[in-house]
Amino acid sequence: MSVRALVVDDSITMQALICRTLSADPAIEVVGTAASADEARAKIKELDPDVLTLDIEMPGLSGLEFLERLMRLRPTPVVMLSTLTSEGAEASIAALELGAFDCFDKLTLRNQADAIRLPGLVRAASATKNRMVRPMPVAAPASAPSAPAEAAEYRPREGAMIAVGASTGGVEALIELLTGFPANCPPTVIVQHMPPSFTASFAARLDRLCRPSVEEARAGAPLIPGKIYLAPGGDKHLEIAGGVKRHCRLVPGPRVSGHQPSVDQLFHSVARVAGADAVGAILTGMGGDGAEGMKAMRDRGSITIGQDEATSVVYGMPAVAHRIGAVTQQLPLRRIAARLLQECRA
Fold this sequence. Notes:
Elements: E1 3-8, H1 12-23, E2 28-34, H2 37-47, E3 51-55, H3 63-73, E4 78-82, H4 86-98, E5 102-105, H5 112-115, H6 117-126, H7 149-152, E6 161-166, H8 170-178, E7 188-192, H9 196-209, E8 213-216, E9 227-230, E10 236-242, E11 246-252, H10 263-273, E12 278-282, H11 291-299, E13 303-307, H12 317-323, E14 329-331, H13 333-344
Subcellular location: Cytoplasm
GO biological process, one term: chemotaxis
EC number: 3.1.1.61, 3.5.1.44
């Protein structure tokens, strides 16, 4: 049965390009197009599509405003199309927070090698249609939440650290996970698959929401309690190095498990350097990046946690890790932060 897609974009030229790209995949049927939020609402009621492609920048009601209302009133898988420049990164991060399945750079549609990724995203998004019932994310507070008593008393053991990998659905998942961390959390390193222009905005967003300090990882940055390091997108992998005093390394190299930066490359370095001092978590995401690295962590004595199927937007990366015996335990997202912190407590 084909995936029924509705294309929402105010540009007739872009509509045609998106339709042509999607229709080249025999598993996708473009059932209609819309040039505005009002037209999209009518087409959704009439056609009941499996997936929307939605432009962020539209006249009248913007793509973000329309997405917020759609997720509240009629949750539907959405792939956002945007110019993924630094200017568009904030809006794209907001879209992912609101529940968009993923974002795609519309400027790459004219490059056949890049455009082929869009049908794959639409097919993957359609698989989540029957699970689009999760609650809306909490609106961003003006500042980081105040620490509860138990968080104020938390103290990580000497040498303890946390490593996390995520992909599709990871923006929402990481916000939920990291807002549960106390200000003096164990040093935490993260690979989240996203375009290079996104990671600085996402790190800044997390820094505003969380009690610990969150920053893009830089070469030589020391791993210290109260700090969370997000791998910068681009052409380098994040690793950890050092002995008693560990630090971040940014290593050039080819894609690993299809990604750059790669969760596998990070987890393998954590296994080598930290061993049983480390605790790992693999969250929602397509593919299998991180599974082999997490198995290496577990083999070196790390406690390893996988997000369960029920709370994953895409049960891909955690599923592969579970299948190969890489995870100690699977947990719903809401319980993972507490477990990671418990394993690192002094």
